[in-house]
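Database export, one record per block. Field names are fixed; values are copied verbatim from the stored entry.
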Amino acid sequence: MSIENEINSFLMVWGSEELSSFLQDSLPLFELYDVDENSDWVEDVVGKEDAQNVRLIRTVYLVSRLAEHHAEGLSKLNNEFKDLWKRMEEYGQEDQEATERH
């Protein structure tokens, strides 16, 4: 099976609803660490001395929740499309090398 066909098969299994749900569930984790040096919303809410502990506890909660809600789908993808990412990287490297030769 060509890499293009394998990617299309993957997208048929992991469609826009699954991807959207996964990304929506992942966003709070990124938002937790989305701070700059002048504004830290977690620190503003809980205080500087508790910000790190709150972030760590919230990270554990969010990662465990994400894993539980998406474990079955991700496991199915892993089994059905084992090492697809590696083949995609190899394909990309081969394509880049061919482009550089021309």
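Remark 1: The chain has a mean pLDDT of 90.
Remark 2: The radius of gyration is 19 Å.
End of record.
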